[in-house]
C-alpha cells in the first residue's frame, strides 16, 4: 500500500525529535540572569570573608597589644592609645589610605632646612644684603598684651626698676619658706590698665627674652625706699618674724628687648631718652 505524503504536512515543518531543542536566544535569555546572580553571590561571599578575616585579625592583634601592655605594667592610658593607633592603621590599610608618614612631603620647590640654613650663611657673608629687622619681631608683636608694651616702653625710657625678693625664716609649722618674689612698682609707674597682672606680664616678657630679673641691685639704694614702704611688704615682713631676709633685685630690658623696643615701638632713640 502506497503512502501518499500530504503537501500540507511538509509545509507545517513538524520536527521528528521527541523533545524539542530550545533555540539559542531562549538559552541565552535563560542563562544570563542565573550567571549574574551567581557572580553577585560569589562577590558578596568573598567580601564578607575578607572583612571577617580582617576583623578577626585586627581583634586578635589589639587583644595581644592590650594583654602585653597590662602584663608589663604600662599605664592604661598608654596601652589604650597604642591599641587605638593600631585600629586606625588597620582601617587605613583596608581603605587604601596612606599613613601619615607615607603622605607626600612638601612640594619640590620648598627648600629643606639645610638649604635654608645655607641661605642664611650666604646672606650673612654678603655685603649687598640689606640690614633687615630680626625675623622674630613680627611674631613677638602678636604675643604681647597691650600692657606689656607699656612695660617695655617704661623700662626703655626709665631704665631698670627695683624689685624685692622676700624670704622668711623657720615658721612654726612648715620649715623655711619663700614668700612671693619680685615685688615691684612697675604696674603703677607704667600706668597699666590691669596692674594686678604685672607678674604675668613680666613672666611673658622674660619668656620672650625681652626682659629679665637681675640678681644685682640698682646703684641707687634710695629707689627701694618707696617699695619698702608699701603696706603689703611691711605686713609681710612683720608676719615673717625672725630670720626673714630681703634681697634687693632689679628688672631690666635685655639687649634683644632694647633692640625690639627701638624697632617696633614709637620711642625716641636711647641717647635722647636718657
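-> sequence recovered:
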Amino acid at each position: 500500500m502506497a503512502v501518499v505524503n500530504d503537501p500540507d504536512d511538509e509545509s507545517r515543518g513538524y520536527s521528528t525529535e521527541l523533545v524539542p531543542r530550545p533555540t539559542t536566544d531562549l538559552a541565552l535569555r535563560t542563562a544570563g540572569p542565573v550567571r549574574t546572580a551567581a557572580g553577585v553571590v560569589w562577590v558578596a561571599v568573598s567580601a564578607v570573608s575578607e572583612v571577617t578575616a580582617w576583623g578577626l585579625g585586627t581583634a586578635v592583634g589589639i587583644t595581644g597589644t592590650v594583654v602585653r601592655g597590662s602584663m608589663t605594667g604600662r599605664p592604661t592610658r598608654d596601652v589604650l592609645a597604642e591599641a587605638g593607633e593600631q585600629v586606625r592603621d588597620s582601617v587605613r590599610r583596608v581603605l587604601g589610605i596612606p599613613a601619615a608618614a607615607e603622605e607626600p612631603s612638601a612640594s619640590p620647590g620648598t627648600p629643606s632646612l639645610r638649604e635654608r640654613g645655607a641661605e642664611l650663611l650666604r646672606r650673612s657673608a654678603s655685603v649687598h644684603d640689606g640690614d633687615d629687622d630680626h625675623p622674630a619681631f613680627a611674631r613677638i608683636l602678636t604675643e604681647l598684651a597691650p600692657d606689656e608694651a607699656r612695660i617695655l616702653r617704661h623700662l626703655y625710657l626709665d631704665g631698670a626698676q627695683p624689685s624685692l625678693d622676700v624670704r622668711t625664716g623657720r615658721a612654726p609649722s612648715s620649715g623655711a619658706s619663700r614668700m612671693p618674689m619680685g615685688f615691684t612698682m612697675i604696674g603703677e609707674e607704667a600706668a597699666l590698665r590691669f596692674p594686678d597682672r604685672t607678674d604675668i606680664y613680666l613672666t611673658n616678657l622674660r619668656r620672650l627674652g625681652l626682659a629679665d630679673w637681675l640678681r644685682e641691685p640698682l646703684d641707687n639704694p634710695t629707689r627701694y625706699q618707696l617699695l619698702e614702704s608699701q603696706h603689703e611688704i611691711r605686713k609681710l615682713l612683720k608676719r615673717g618674724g625672725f630670720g626673714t631676709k630681703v634681697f634687693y633685685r632689679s628688672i631690666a630690658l635685655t639687649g634683644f628687648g632694647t633692640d625690639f623696643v627701638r624697632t617696633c615701638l614709637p620711642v625716641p632713640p636711647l641717647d635722647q631718652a636718657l
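Strands lie at 161-170, 176-183, 211-214, 245-253.
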